[in-house]
Write a structure and sequence with these properties.
Elements: H1 2-15, H2 20-42, H3 47-58, H4 60-78, H5 84-104, H6 108-114
Helix pairs in contact: 1-2, 4-5
Length: 119
């Protein structure tokens, strides 16, 4: 938690700086902190949270293989000129993408030959 607060403070300071080394280090520090928080949240013994992580683990290959299409479609349709709205739209499209993967996983042909799952 302390690293997260420190990273956010550094991020605010870096916003007014042009030092790319500090920006890069802070980027990785912030991502490590966020990954630690997510792991801590989902490592509790709640059944719902464990099922969610199990689903992500089982479907990590199709998510990894096909997530770039979502990024390219959003970039082509909306471009970067929308600022924060671009990222909000990207997250919403990615959520729809996860729902599509969930639905398409029920088709054995798609699951086996497009997503690469042998189950």
């Amino acid at each position: 938690m302390i690293l997260l607060i420190a990273s956010i403070v550094i991020e605010i300071a870096v916003f007014f700086s042009t030092n790319h080394v500090v920006e890069t280090v802070n980027y990785y520090l912030l991502n490590i902190c966020l990954a630690g928080i997510v792991i801590q949240l989902f490592s509790s013994r709640h059944e719902i949270k464990n099922r969610f992580l199990e689903y992500i683990g089982k479907n990590s290959l199709p998510i990894y293989l096909w997530h770039v299409i979502v990024i390219l479609v959003v970039k082509k349709c909306f471009g970067n000129e929308y600022g924060v709205a671009y990222y909000v739209i990207s997250v919403l499209m990615f959520m729809l993408f996860l729902l599509a993967i969930y639905g398409l996983n029920r088709l054995s042909f798609v699951r086996k030959y497009i997503f690469g799952n042998r189950e």
